[in-house]
Amino acid sequence: MSIRTLDDLLAEGVSGRRVLVRADLNVPLDKQTGAITDDGRIRAVLPTLGALTEAGAKVVVCSHLGRPKGSPDPQFSLSPVAGRLGELLGAPVHFATDTVGESAQATVSALADGEVALLENLRFNKGETSKDDAERGAFADQLAAFGDAYVDDAFGAVHRKHASVYDVPARLPHVAGRLVLREVEVLSTLTGNPERPYVVVLGGSKVSDKLAVIEALLPTVDRLLIGGGMCFTFLKAQGHEVGTSLLEKDMVETCRNLLERSEGKIMLPVDVVAADAFAPDAAHDVVPANGIPSHRVGLDIGPETVAGFAAALRGSSADGTANARTIFWNGPMGVFEMAAFANGTRGVAEAIAESDAFSVVGGGDSAAAVRALGLDEKSFGHISTGGGASLEYLEGKTLPGIAALEN
């Protein structure tokens, strides 16, 4: 892979130049207050922004937030992000109330060397996500007019063929930011020759979302631990009752085939936390994975499963397994947002953190769980900012944003 880096751009000199930075500032907001509930993605872009401002660049940041329908929607405004970004940078961030309109043009024009501006949500413009090349290209032309150079530091968006990710690099000198470079370096170790034993932990709700990565990983991993809502389709494939638990009926045969082909690599829960309802205060208890009552819903893996998964991660003298040397984790083990059903995710996350392995947390809900459960982020080798992007990278797919940087 041949990609120019931020260091290459800095070596050329950026003082007084406008640098357009595509960041991933798609942070979760509290629905009632609009407050940012997890600023991890904002923090992740600070090394790139800090290096540019220190070098005297006029930095123009653009990002999406949420899924607006191609027109302005106040609930998806990046305004609170501008405030938090300014706090973390220790300097005001000038906020444009539109993306490429009068406010954006005036805000960018007024930037002094070393200052930062943030444009309003890219997805307020239909051109950002358009499938039509001409419509997307026209929007990219407007964005590119704000920069003399382009930096992609939005790893969480590199799997999207969007104007700001795919089309703008074709219009400006372009480099990878600190975050994108680190993400690619880390994930390439997993697809190359990872140190063994190599153990992957997958959770989340749907098998269909993870099928491609399971297919890609099965030949290369030593163990594949499956929890979360997706485990119930596998349990059904083994012939077990799963009650009212999340089930993809059309995936049962696929899971059966995966189990047959896995050569014993796949580990499934042996017990689950089953509840009367999907609610934080629902009555619940631990039941065997092959004995879930027909009226109950599985919302977490049980303590025996946590112990078994931990043994597979840390190694166990009882069954002769060696300590994992490389771990990739994507997807929670249960409904961790509800305290009663967070123990599985916490237990597995702690086992990963305490292992001697090089561990990669695959973004999305897994990264959110690490922070929500108060775990030390430094205990993990790398926490990705892109759940979907990291999975597609491991699947071996061509990521449009990375391809655009290589050109």
What does this 3D model show about the protein?
The protein has helices spanning 6-12, 40-44, 46-54, 79-89, 102-109, 126-129, 133-144, 163-167, 178-191, 207-217, 231-237, 252-261, 303-314, 343-354, 364-372, 387-395, 400-406, and strands at 18-23, 58-62, 93-95, 116-118, 149-153, 174-176, 198-202, 223-226, 266-267, 271-275, 284-288, 297-301, 326-330, 358-361, 382-383. α8 (163-167) links the parallel β5 (149-153) and β6 (174-176). α11 crosses α12 and α13 packs parallel to α14 (343-354). The chain has 17 helices and 15 strands. The strands form three sheets. The chain has a six-stranded parallel beta sheet, sandwiched between helices. The protein is α/β, with parallel strands linked by helices and 407 residues long. The mean pLDDT is 94.
Strand fraction equals: 15-25%
Point out poorly predicted stretches: none
Could you say which overall geometry the principal axes of the C-alpha atoms support?
elongated
Portion of residues in helices?
Answer: 25-40%
**Overall mean pLDDT:** 94
Spatial gap, N to C terminus? 10 Å
Count up the helices. 17
Structural class from helices and strands? alpha/beta
- Number of strand segments: 15
- Tell me the radius of gyration: 23 Å
Main sheet: strand order: 3-4-2-1-5-6
Q: Strand count, sense and closure of the main sheet?
A: 6 strands, parallel
Family: Belongs to the phosphoglycerate kinase family.
Main location: cytoplasm
Keywords: ATP-binding, Cytoplasm, Glycolysis, Kinase, Nucleotide-binding, Transferase
Subcellular location: Cytoplasm
